[in-house]
Design brief:
The chain is mostly helical and 136 residues long. It has seven helices and no strands. Helices cover 84% and strands 0% of the residues.
Length: 136
């Protein structure tokens, strides 16, 4: 029973992340929800909720990738938070979206290109290389 409550809470955190007022709050709520999903799947690898969790992860990868590509006014800290959500926590989902749909290739490039600060791009590219190496 507790587990279903945790999943319900994680789903609520996803919903709240969409409505949060600050980028920091959005990212924190998303991280918390993803942590709960990961914990659930670790404890219950054959969970009947696995498909639902996969669908929620994919939907939010799509949502955040689209949102971030459109919003060029995100500060350094928030940019890095979102980067680690998209490339780290939702990396496999983002990879699949990019592979399946050219629109998401463009959105991903816009998100990275919108950060025209050389230091931000250097940090992002270094982190991206490490995350891609982990996935391979």
């Amino acid at each position: 029973m507790q587990d279903n409550e945790n999943l319900s809470e994680a789903i609520e955190q996803l919903r709240l992340s969409e409505k949060a007022e600050t980028h920091k709050e959005k990212a924190e709520l998303l991280f918390e929800a993803l942590d709960t999903f990961d914990e659930h799947l670790k404890d219950f690898p054959d969970s009947p909720d696995a498909k639902r969790i996969a669908n929620l992860r994919r939907a939010h990868a799509r949502l955040w990738l689209t949102f971030l590509a459109a919003d060029g006014h995100i500060d350094l800290d928030d940019t890095l938070r979102y980067f680690f959500v998209l490339e780290g926590r939702l990396g496999p989902e983002v990879d699949r979206l990019i592979a399946e749909n050219p629109e998401f290739v463009a959105a991903h490039k816009r998100f990275l290109a919108s950060k025209n600060n050389d230091e931000v791009l250097r940090l992002i590219k270094a982190a991206q290389a490490k995350l891609l190496a982990k996935r391979s």
